[in-house]
Write a structure and sequence with these properties.
Elements (H helix, E strand, L loop, with lengths): L2 H10 L29 H6 L18 E7 L19 H17 L1 E7 L4 H10 L7 E5 H4 L26 H7 L15 H4 L2 E6 H6 L5 H6 L5 H11 L15 E5 L3 H8 L5 E3 L5 E3 L4 H13 L7 E3 L14 H6 L3 E7 L3 H4 L6 E4 L13 E2 L5 E4 L7 H17 L1 H14 L3 H12 L1 E2 L2 H5 L4 H10 L7 H24 L2
Parallel strand pairs: 1-2, 1-3, 5-8, 5-9, 11-13
Antiparallel strand pairs: 3-12, 4-9, 4-10, 6-7
Helix pairs in contact: 1-17, 3-15, 3-16, 10-12, 11-12, 19-20
Length: about 500
């Protein structure tokens, strides 16, 4: 099944009971030789229809009460990063996670144990591997910190773990395709962790401001394929208002867009431009700006310009800044901006707004761009199996089962019951979410964070003198290329 079709299936599915037929009374097997199916044949996969027609079953594998040790990201205000919960509370997402995990534990005869590592979860694994200690079976970490560890050869090549059915549609095929380098995959994303969805960049808009300023209906612009960077910039200019008439845009005024500098790379990505791409052999390379890239870069600078109240960098210094408006979410909730560029996880907080809000995909470069694309933040969680793990197949069986079960329990609870039913306020936003989830993209420069280059591009683009993107490529390009080569040298040496 095509990823787009699968994304729509997940989006429209209501919360269902856990798949029937899961075996919890499996025959005892040795943990290193459990009954585990090999990866699905690629040709056979193309013949399958919808995921709901598959007869997925947790494999017959009894792991004799093994404690599955997971390094995870600790809770954050905007995200749901935990993989386990202690009890059912009546909240749909919490209860779906609980039932999913207990089903997996019973079927595989394991116990799930989390080791929350916060933003340093990757460092916990790194120290463990350096000490050659078998402390953890699996790591979840922010991509921009966990990704670079692969450069050190600390992860197992997931393609060598035959218990991972990565060809199946419950895996994010876009992530797998993006993260694979030279035929090797050392980490990927999984909906077993809901932060994978929370970390998708979206655009929120204030309906009250739309009505007051008598602006176009952005939903219709999206449907008509006319939701472009120019259209968004025009609306941002028209919405920007010097409320107190002092001639200076301050915290007291109404801005077009509010966000923080990271949105610069997201706007650029969503216009179809990436900093690092792959050649036909899967080898990553740093691009050099062509005419279209330069055009997208200039459009992004227009969207993130503070002139005439178009863009408020909430992390910067501006007149009237206080604890009440020191985050993009606060300024947006106080009706101080038409648009807010943030991740999907903030939709739960925005439910507290008095004014109605809507959700949109990021704009296209122009009307000729084939599809809307939506980038994931550098905090998107990736998972990896450490090389100190003595039984990657056991771990693969577990995370494959957890990801498959998430597709029919946790993810539908997240979208259908939580986002659709509680946090979004109109059917149009639900339609937009389907578009957003269908076309998730990942920039390798962000995920692997070679030489911190994506931050250099952001700093260049957000600076007053940053009109020419060639400057940062000429200045840092050779260092980035050298860092990429070091990564590939490691990939060629291990596994």
């Amino acid at each position: 099944m095509k990823p787009a079709k699968y994304a729509k299936y997940l989006f429209l599915t209501i919360l269902v009971s856990i798949l029937p037929g899961l075996s919890s009374s499996c025959a005892d097997t040795d943990t290193s030789d459990a009954k585990i199916p090999a990866n699905a044949d690629a040709n056979a996969q193309t013949e399958q229809t919808d995921f709901e027609d598959e007869s997925y079953k947790i494999p017959d594998a009894d792991f004799d009460g093994y404690v599955m040790r997971l390094v995870t990201i600790s809770n954050e205000e905007w995200a749901i990063p935990e993989l386990d919960v202690e009890e059912e509370t009546g909240e749909p997402v919490n209860d779906a996670i609980y039932r999913r995990n207990r089903t997996a534990e019973d079927a595989l005869n394991i116990i799930i144990q989390e080791f929350p590592g916060g933003i340093q979860s990757h460092d916990m694994l790194r120290k463990s591997v350096m000490a050659n200690e078998d402390e953890y079976d699996l790591m979840f970490s922010h991509a921009s910190s966990g990704g670079p560890i692969s450069n050190l050869g600390y992860y197992v090549n997931l393609y060598d773990v035959r218990s991972l059915n990565l060809a199946h549609p419950y895996w994010d095929q876009g992530a797998i395709e993006s993260f694979e380098l030279m035929g090797k995959l050392y980490f990927t994303a999984s909906d077993a962790c809901l932060m994978t969805n929370d970390a998708i960049w979206v655009l929120y808009f204030n309906k009250k401001i739309i009505q007051e300023a008598q602006l176009e209906n952005p939903y219709q612009l999206v449907r008509d394929g006319k939701w472009t960077a120019d259209a968004m910039h025009k609306m941002a200019r028209e919405a920007a208002t010097d409320m107190d008439g002092d001639g200076i845009f301050t915290a007291a005024d109404q801005w077009g867009i509010v966000s923080h500098p990271l949105c610069f790379i997201e706007f650029l990505n969503c216009m179809g431009e990436q900093l690092v791409k792959k050649d036909g052999n899967g080898y990553p390379f740093l691009i050099y700006p062509d005419e279209r890239f330069i055009g997208a870069y200039k459009k992004t600078r227009e969207l993130t310009s503070g002139e005439s109240g178009v863009f408020l960098d909430i992390t910067g210094n501006f007149k009237g800044k206080s604890a009440d408006n020191d985050h993009a979410s606060k300024a947006f909730m106080n009706d101080r901006a038409l648009f807010c560029a943030e991740v999907l996880g903030w939709s739960r907080k925005f439910r507290e707004m008095t004014a109605d809000f809507g959700i949109l995909p990021h704009p296209k470069y122009d009307e000729n761009q084939p599809a809307y694309q939506n980038a994931t933040a550098n905090t998107v969680p990736i998972f990896a199996i450490p090389i100190t793990n003595p039984n990657p197949e056991r771990t693969g069986t577990f995370i494959d089962a957890l990801t498959a079960l998430s597709a029919t329990t946790v993810t539908p609870a997240y979208y259908t019951i939580s986002l659709e039913g509680k946090f979004t306020r109109d059917e149009d936003s639900i339609e937009m979410l389907d578009i957003i989830r269908t076309n998730r993209i990942y920039d390798l420069a962000v995920i692997y964070n070679w030489n911190n280059f994506f931050n250099d591009v952001i700093n260049q683009g957000m600076s007053k003198s940053g009109d020419n993107p060639l400057t940062v490529f000429d200045k840092s390009g050779e260092k980035v290329k050298a860092s990429i080569e070091k990564t590939m040298d490691v990939f060629n040496e291990v596994n």
